[in-house]
């Protein structure tokens, strides 16, 4: 069984750790935060649900002690600031880039073989930064955004169409940003029936797309900080696909070398996730409109990546 570390014991990191523990995804779980006592407290709290929820994952919470993370098979990086209402994810780059870079370098020192999953925002540039800063192969460092965005897409589709959300299939690709994500309506279906067949009212599907794109912003406005239940569960789902070598196809932020016509960028595309991390990009046929949106999305992500050089983290 696997050892998993979650860095950042805030809303998303602790939720991810809770899902990993209760679902017994790994045999050993480490939660690390820079704030004294927070990881220790959250792990103790989670441990006190063990007899209530019937699980027995070995868990430890530590304050900035990277030695405790040694030999991890998977590391999830959630450390950094979340946005406040009215902000974009991209605005977090100045404060989060240094945090993500330092954390990734510390992880590398103790777990050079770990698959590193980036969650901190702006997630696409943070993934690019972690990949470049660690110099690890592209399968070993990738980002989580599409898993969450796709879950939201399916949620909004199920509400709009009045169907069980577990019968809905759908993917969101592109950047993990309010204007950069691309819900693939052409590929979405309910029990194999295209949603475009089930719903002839284009305005309904257009609204689902718009709601999905601002899914994170909507929750940030309601909560005063960004969401954590679905983000934590989405990261845990990706970890489970790695640990159990499930080979799920999950839209994930991976480094592209020609796929989807893009080079030298980390951005969301359907990817096979297994024991070796981001194992294979799956190229699906996009409509002309989706292709154009993907190019625009990549352009915007590249623009944010350029800031990494300006602020001297790359
Ligand atoms: N990729 C995605 O789909 C999503 C990404 N996010 C992002 O995840 C990040 C975390 O969000 P929340 O958990 O809500 O924030 P939070 O503020 O609740 O937690 C962040 C934690 O990181 C810790 N931290 C800061 N610097 C650190 C360091 N150098 N080493 C270790 N820990 C450190 C803080 O002490 C804090 O406990 C944010 O950047 C947010 O935007 C949030 C939701 C979805
Ligand atoms: O909205 C945010 O800032 C956090 C996030 O990435 C999400 O929930 O999708």
UniProtKB/TrEMBL annotation:
Substrate binds at residues 83, 89, 121, 152. The keyword Transmembrane does not apply. The keyword Nucleus does not apply. Residues 148-303 form the Lactate/malate dehydrogenase C-terminal domain. InterPro entries: L-lactate/malate_DH, Lactate/malate_DH_C, Lactate/malate_DH_N, Lactate_DH/Glyco_Ohase_4_C, Malate_DH_type3, NAD(P)-bd_dom_sf. Keywords: NAD, Oxidoreductase, Tricarboxylic acid cycle. NAD(+) binds at residues 8-13, 33, 96, 119-121. Residues 3-143 form the Lactate/malate dehydrogenase N-terminal domain. Coiled coil: none annotated. One of its GO terms (molecular function) is L-lactate dehydrogenase (NAD+) activity. It catalyses: (S)-malate + NAD(+) = oxaloacetate + NADH + H(+). Transmembrane segments: none annotated. One of its GO terms (biological process) is tricarboxylic acid cycle. Its EC number is 1.1.1.37. The active site is at residue 176. HAMAP family: Malate_dehydrog_3 (MF_00487). NCBIfam families: PRK06223.1. Belongs to the LDH/MDH superfamily. MDH type 3 family. Catalyzes the reversible oxidation of malate to oxaloacetate. This is Malate dehydrogenase. The lineage of its organism: Bacteria, Pseudomonadati, Bacteroidota, Bacteroidia, Bacteroidales. The gene is mdh_2.
């Amino acid at each position: 069984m696997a050892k998993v570390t979650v860095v950042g014991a805030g809303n998303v990191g602790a939720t991810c750790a809770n899902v990993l523990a209760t679902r017994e995804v790994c045999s050993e779980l480490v939660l690390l935060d820079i704030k004294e006592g927070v990881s220790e407290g959250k792990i103790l709290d989670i441990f006190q649900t063990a007899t209530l929820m019937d699980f027995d994952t070995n868990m430890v919470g530590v304050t900035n002690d990277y030695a405790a993370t040694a030999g991890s098979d998977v590391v999830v990086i959630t450390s950094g600031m979340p946005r406040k209402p009215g902000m974009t994810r991209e605005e977090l780059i100045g404060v989060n880039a240094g945090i993500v870079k330092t954390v990734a370098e510390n992880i590398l020192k103790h777990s050079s073989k770990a698959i590193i999953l980036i969650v901190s925002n702006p997630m696409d540039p943070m993934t690019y930064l972690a990949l470049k800063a660690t110099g690890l192969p592209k399968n070993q460092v990738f980002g989580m955004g599409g898993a969450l965005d796709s879950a939201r897409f399916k949620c909004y589709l199920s509400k709009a169409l009045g169907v069980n959300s577990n019968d809905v299939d759908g993917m969101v690709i592109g950047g993990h940003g309010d204007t950069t994500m691309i819900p693939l309506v052409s590929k979405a279906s309910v029990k194999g029936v295209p949603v475009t067949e089930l719903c002839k009212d284009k305005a309904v599907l257009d609204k689902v797309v718009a709601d999905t794109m601002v899914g994170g912003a909507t929750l940030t406005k309601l909560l005063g900080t960004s969401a954590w239940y679905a983000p934590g569960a989405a990261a845990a789902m990706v970890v489970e696909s790695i640990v159990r070598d499930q080979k799920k196809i999950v839209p994930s932020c991976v480094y592209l070398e020609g796929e989807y016509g893009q080079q030298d960028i980390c951005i969301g595309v359907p990817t096979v996730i297994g024991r070796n991390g981001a194992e294979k990009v799956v190229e699906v046929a996009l409509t002309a409109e989706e292709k154009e949106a993907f190019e625009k999305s990549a352009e915007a992500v590249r623009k944010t990546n350029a800031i990494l050089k300006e602020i001297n983290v790359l």
